[in-house]
Fold this protein.
Amino acid sequence: MTSTQDELNHKKQLNGSNESTKCEKFDQTLAQLHQQHIQSTASKPELTQDIIAQLKQKHQNQTQLLKWQPWAALTCALLVAIISFDLIQLSTPNRPEQQIQASNIIVSLGSPVTNLDKPDFLKQLEAELNHNQRLSIAINHQLKANLETYSVQDQASQSIYSVVASLSKTQNGWQLTYCHQTQAKIYQNIAALQPKKVNWEELVTNKSVRVFMDESGKLLFVEKDNTSSC
Amino acid sequence: MLKILSHTWLANKLSSHDKMQKYVETNDIKWLEQLVRQHQDQLFGFIAAQSSSDLAADVCQQTWLKVMDKKHLYRQQYQFKAWLFTIARNILLDEFRRKRKYTENSSEIESLATVTVTLEQDTSNNERVFKDVDIILYTAALNKLNFQQKEALMLQLEGFSLKQISDICGAAEETIKTRIRYAKQNLKQTISEQLK
């Protein structure tokens, strides 16, 4: 039994080695055939030359492109920067002053505009500006003169006050009733005032009069006043 | 003169991988030119076996141009020949798809797997087959293989490892093994039938 099995195993081993030898032979033959096949289908030398020429041409193109690329990139960047700057300047909606300024800059950067070339609205605008400027200078001069006069008067004179009052005759004599909110300050040199004698008989009863007093409230004189009333 | 000599000497010493690395580093077209001279025939043979000479020439041109364009994608861990063949294969498949010539059919392998050849049983006949077979018969038998089997077999005969073939074809190593085994069986069967 054992010897039969051994024989079988031996046969199997022989068959196995036979199989592997066959496979090796087959693979060797296949490799040889493949080599022959490759040789028979080898690419034509012209194709290899063509490919190399094509690659060289492409390489040359790429190199030339690389030479110009930085300059092209720089030019593009500059163009983009200029365009962006202009766009930002012109499209800022919240800054009208800057927009006006920008348009002024554009005008002033160009050739100077002569009077003949100026549009009508610009001429009119300039005339108005000149007129206003002259007016403002004149007003300033006037104000300055007035201020000087006032300061001289203010220093030289003591103020007197006037009040509108109504005159009435009572048992005790003449009575003045001052009207409400009619007090006024008068700039006048008090020294230059001549003392006036009040003729009470000339004053008409129940008529408005203007009463003049100094700063201390001392009655200076009384006048008839037909223009005011209480 | 000395420069040319040293360049030639250095070029002979370097592997394809090193040449490609040099080309990537220096952008010197001479390195690529050497790679073309070194690999063009094998590449052409591989593509021509799966298509036609005209298409193979076109695919080879496209492949080398792509190598130039995509050189920055070449990595230290790559093997140049495997990388080159992967590019070529992808271009070939694109061409097939464009021409509607190639229809990938996964069941094709399974159906072919049922064709189990019992040729090994006839030892004497088998030996005779591969002694007398010539290149025309071999090419005819090769052309009868389906695309995937032929591709896997050709890559193995080109000297690629199973891992590299699986990387190139984008299939598992076991699948590649099966494809190669059936490719060989079918090849034997076709040749023996033609010799009868």
Chain A is about 60% helix and 15% strand.
